[in-house]
């Protein structure tokens, strides 16, 4: 097992004449949060060692020792027996020290031509890359679940809202497809950010590069990077790729939060459009009748912390002169928090989407309440030759009359409707029904059930490719 190391004899300590105080040690250490980078740190070290050996900078034997030691360290970490020491500051020094303990001088040679500055930048890029890949899969599975819901309800009519007032009838399937589109753009944003994440900093060393004859492209290839970072100062210092990722994560949460807001409203007993399975809700400790939509509410709340993470990183970066500054150690917790929050939220939402029960009768009743087909009546009059503004006016008067009579437009008699325009004939009732209204919006992007089914097929084909 690893011994407790004193401050003396550490990677940087020969230069120092007095030990660091305990408080400063705790203040400057990152090992208790950056140890989550352990596996990518080891992967980076193995690729670096492989290149050092291939270039004749270390011996083949040294490389074999490093590989053996790292395999042992990996299994200790996986078994939970690896002892992380605050004295050793961060994940990099902890692993290096243990390696040296296990394999001797070869462990001390690993850091040749490398600095923790390019090492940590590499680790974070590997970490963000794999987070992006996970998040893209989760977004696609959420989209798949929403597509299923949309398909079941391609014909289910609900009121569409503007200003939170009933506006025009739409289908619930169409409404779900709006979120499929939003999360689809989130996928694109993640994939686009990945291109800029996937470049290798190693080789930049502390800031200026290294005097050893390294082969950066070889390391890039081993680690699956598309390219190397082309400027050593930039490579070790900028975290724009992590900021970009957090911005994309913030947009994912913004979409999740909008959806959450709707789920909360729809589930409120006053609205009653949906129910969410009990396993996503909780009760109240005092009010026995309650079933609260906790998951959507929490997701809406957690959106704030992800925005905060983004703001932290932007602020962290803005004042830093080139090249590396210790400020950058503060990049990790906000980044990890964004990954954890986005991953957990998407995982729960993909599951919850399949646990939503739609109540078509409540949706239909609400759609019948707000003169949702008024625009259809106006369009009808326009098709009979009335200029749109005049049609708008005629229908506005009809709606006022309905208000007084407490009835829907479709419940007015033909004679009464003709009071507002003599162009009305008995074919008007076909456009005043909710079904007629949605079916008539039959173009790409429209709410007609036929279009909803086509849109679903289009997205399914993309998901399958
Ligand atoms: N723990 C450090 C970080 O997260 C590693 C790099 C430290 N480099 C240094 N020159 N102190 O940024």
Automatic annotation (TrEMBL):
EC top class, as a word: lyase
Gene Ontology molecular function, alphabetical: argininosuccinate lyase activity
Any GO BP annotation: L-arginine biosynthetic process via ornithine
Protein name: Argininosuccinate lyase
Classification lineage: Bacteria, Pseudomonadati, Pseudomonadota, Betaproteobacteria, Burkholderiales
Pfam families: ASL_C2, Lyase_1
Residues making up the signal peptide according to the UniProt record: none
Annotated Gene Ontology cellular component terms: cytosol
Keywords from the named record: Amino-acid biosynthesis, Arginine biosynthesis, Cytoplasm, Lyase
Known EC number: 4.3.2.1
Catalytic activity line of the entry: 2-(N(omega)-L-arginino)succinate = fumarate + L-arginine
Organism: Massilia psychrophila
The UniProt record lists the keyword Lyase: yes
PROSITE patterns: FUMARATE_LYASES
């Amino acid at each position: 097992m690893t011994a407790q190391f004193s401050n003396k004899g550490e990677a940087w300590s020969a230069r120092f004449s007095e030990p660091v105080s305990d408080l400063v040690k705790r203040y400057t250490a990152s090992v208790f949060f950056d140890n989550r980078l352990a596996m990518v740190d080891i992967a980076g070290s193995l690729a670096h060692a492989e290149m050092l050996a291939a270039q004749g900078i270390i011996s083949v034997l040294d490389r074999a020792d490093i590989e053996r030691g790292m395999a042992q360290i990996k299994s200790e970490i996986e078994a939970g027996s690896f002892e992380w020491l605050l004295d050793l500051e961060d994940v990099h020094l902890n692993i290096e020290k243990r390696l040296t303990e296990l394999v001797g001088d070869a462990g001390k040679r690993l850091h040749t031509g490398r600095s923790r500055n390019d090492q940590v930048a590499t680790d974070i890029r590997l970490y963000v890359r794999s987070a992006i890949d996970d998040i893209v899969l989760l977004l696609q599975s959420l989209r798949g679940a929403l597509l299923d819901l949309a398909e079941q309800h391609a014909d289910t009519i609900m009121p569409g809202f503007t200003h939170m007032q009933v506006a025009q009838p739409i289908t619930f399937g169409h409404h779900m497809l709006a979120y499929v589109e939003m999360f689809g753009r989130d996928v694109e944003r993640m994939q686009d950010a990945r291109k800029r994440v996937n470049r290798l900093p190693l080789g930049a060393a502390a800031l200026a590069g290294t005097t050893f004859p390294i082969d950066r492209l070889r390391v890039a290839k081993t680690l699956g990077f598309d390219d190397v970072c082309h400027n050593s100062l930039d490579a070790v210092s900028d975290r724009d790729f992590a900021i970009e990722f957090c911005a994309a994560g913030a947009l994912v949460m913004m979409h999740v939060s909008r959806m959450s807001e709707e789920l909360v409203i729809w589930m409120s007993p006053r609205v009653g459009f949906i129910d969410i399975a009990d396993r996503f809700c909780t009760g109240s400790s005092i009010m026995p009748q309650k079933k609260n939509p906790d998951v959507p509410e929490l997701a809406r709340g957690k959106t704030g912390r992800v925005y905060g993470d983004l703001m932290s990183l932007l602020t962290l970066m803005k004042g830093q002169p080139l090249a590396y500054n210790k400020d950058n150690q503060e990049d990790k917790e906000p980044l990890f928090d964004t990954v954890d929050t986005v991953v957990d939220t998407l995982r729960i939402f993909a599951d919850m989407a399949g646990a939503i029960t739609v109540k078509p009768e409540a949706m239909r009743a609400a759609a019948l309440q707000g003169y949702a087909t008024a625009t259809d009546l106006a369009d009808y009059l326009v098709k009979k030759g009335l200029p749109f503004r005049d049609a708008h006016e005629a229908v506005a008067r009809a709606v006022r009359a309905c208000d007084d009579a407490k009835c829907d437009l479709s419940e007015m008699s033909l004679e009464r409707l003709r009071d507002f325009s003599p162009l009305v004939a008995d074919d008007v009732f076909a456009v005043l029904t909710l079904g007629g209204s949605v079916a008539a919006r039959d173009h790409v992007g429209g709410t007609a059930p036929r279009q909803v089914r086509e849109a679903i097929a289009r997205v399914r084909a993309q998901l399958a490719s």
